[in-house]
Amino acid sequence: MAQTIDCDKIKELSAKYPKLKEINYTYGTAGFRMKADYLESVIFRVGILAGLRSRKLDSKVIGIMVTASHNPEADNGVKLVDPSGEMLEQQWESYATQLANAQSDDELINVIKSVVSQNGIDESKKASVVYARDTRPSGPKLIAALEDGIKAISAVGVNLGIKTTPQLHYFTYYLNYCEKPTEGSYDELADKVYYEKFSKAFHKAVGDNQRLSNIYVDAANGVGAPKLRDLLEWIDKLNDNIFKVTIINDDINTRGKLNFQCGADYVKTGQKLPLALNLTCEQRAASLDGDADRIVFYYVEEDGTFRLLDGDKIAALSAGFIIELVKTACLDISVGVVQTAYANGSSTAYLERELVFPVSCVPTGVKHLHHKAQEYDIGVYFEANGHGTVLFSSNALNKINSDGSRTTEQEKAIKKLQALTELINQTVGDALSDLLLVESILINRQWTFKKWNSVYTDKPNRLVKVVVENRNIFKTTNAERTLVEPKGLQEKIDKLVAQYKDGRSFVRPSGTEDVVRVYAEASTREDCDALAFKVAGLVYDEAGGTGGRPSEFL
Ligand code: 16G
Ligand code: ZN
Highest taxon of the source (predicted)? Predict the structure, then answer.
């Protein structure tokens, strides 16, 4: 007899994971994320949702990643991955929120039944799920709750063990669209297919060019450390003289170290070196975040000035290289760049005016950038914080991979483009794939970090947090660049901005923290800071600032 959803089994298992009454959960920009102690019931229910989603999509494999990325070690989180390796479809985010907030087991069953009926889900279909976690100490306990959820909905679940977020995305895609092995450990296979693909593509992309100097990679004491080490072994097997990396902050076993004073977020936000790294002016470095889906690069000048090469600089580097190849190969392919309001004004000006790209601005959050980038033949998207990738449409792939009579120059450009289509993770922004992408472009161009940095000069900018009573009263439009509510606040911000040369500032509620964020830039550091702290003060005074007015607010 065809299997149907077994309400008794769900209730029985759900009783182990009662919902904490006082918490209101939201599936936000990056799934559910908070203190790990509050997440067991949520993760159990995410297992159920994944099973329903798989049934809805004809038994395709759904991915689940347990991670809280760059957040402190005590936090954790969970997000779902659709069969193509992309983020969960938006409509289902609201189901996730509804499931997580069902106050009782009976209510939970009602929400499940309503998702089934709204989506015409065939309960007799098989359901298939793969899941992985980062290195957080709370991971195993949450995985146990997830496994009960998967069992409750009678889905088949496969544990991939410890993986980076982009590995989980890529492997979900791989199982659905490349090959579904019948035997062997999926855990090992997920590593192997990933390392094999990216190491081979890297070799194609660098060609016969000379290698550059060693690069220090700060792995945030997270999952990126062991995975990058393995990937480098694969690269070395093909040519052990092309990429020299020293991994630092690679201690995944000592409690309290994950993301502590290190990692991409720490470096980007503080504009300073991570713990355990002293750089001289000739040296190059990069930082990953805790689940290895973000990366930023940096170096120090002779006079000790810290220079950050963030997501905007990565976008400029990769878009510039790709358009050159497209032109040399005489391909009729459109290339566009997608940014958020946090992109430095100089980067947008450089892309639009010097490289003459169409540039779009979308709200914060990878899913917004990813979807917009799909509108171009080749869509380059990076958030300033270092999360991003380059998407090749099927039209672009057809043209890049088609035969034809070509000059040697054109052929060389085509080969490079082909290598890039394989080197860049198409499912999601990936710190390891981006590291290889950046290095291969720099090798091709024989550029130092200093040369790369010189393509444009960042405008001074500052990010300030304001703690308010209720951040939900802040509503934005125009890709988060304009406040609609609280009413009248935007006009006051505009008046402040008008006082500074090349000033720009916007205010938006955070999707991951209980704060409002203020961004400002201007032509000088002094003006930028003054603008940022005036806007922050304005928001604090007029929109329910709480917890003591910080002394730097003007
Ligand atoms: C999440 C987003 C990231 C975004 C950040 C903004 C994903 C996978 N991650 O980490 O893209 O930049 O949130 O945080 O979408 P905020 O809303 O707190 O400023
Ligand atoms: Zn991350």
Answer: Eukaryota
**Residue whose CA lies nearest to ligand 1 atom number 3:** 365
Contact 505, 463 (CB under 8 A): no
Question: From CA 270, how far away is CA 385, in angstroms rounded?
Answer: 12
Confidence of residue 3 (pLDDT cuts 50, 70, 90): low
**Ligand nearest to the backbone CA of 385:** 1
pTM exceeding the 0.90 threshold for the entire prediction: yes
Q: Which 8-state DSSP code applies to residue 472?
A: G
pLDDT(2) > 80: no
The CB of 364 under 6 Å from ligand 1? The reply is yes
CA dihedral 484, 487, 488, 490 (to 10 degrees): -30
Closest CA to 346 of 273, 442, 429, 453: 453
Given this model, what pLDDT does residue 282 score? Answer: 86
Distance, CA of 400 to CA of 444 (rounded, Å): 19
Active site residues: 69
Alpha helices for 85-185 (secondary structure H): 90-101, 105-118, 139-152, 165-177
Average of per-residue pLDDT across 304-316: 97
Contact between residue 483 and residue 493 where contact means Cβ atoms under 8 Å apart: yes
* pLDDT for residue 1 is more than 80: no
In short, whether 67's Cβ falls inside 6 Å of ligand 1 is no
- 264 CA to centre of ligand 2 in angstroms: 9
Q: Residue 480: nearest ligand to its CA?
A: 1
> Would you say the CB of residue 511 lies under 6 angstroms from ligand 1?
yes
pLDDT band at 226 (very low <50, low <70, confident <90, very high): very high
Model confidence at 213: pLDDT above 90: yes
Counting ligands in written order, the one closest to the CA of 514 is 1
Contacts of residue 250, defined as CB under 8 A and 6 or more positions apart, other chains included, come to: 219, 221, 225, 226, 229
Which residue's CA is the closest to the ligand 1 atom numbered 10?
30
Maximum CA pair distance of the chain?
A: 75
Sheet holding 388-392, edge to edge: 359-361, 335-339, 378-382, 388-392
- pLDDT at site 381: 98
Pocket test for ligand 1, best of 366, 371, 472 (most atoms within 8 A of CB): 366
26 Cβ below 6 A of ligand 1 = no
Contact (CB, 8 A) for 80 and 43:
no
CA gap 220, 249 in Å, rounded? 6
Q: By alpha-carbon position, which residue is closest to atom 4 of ligand 1?
A: 365
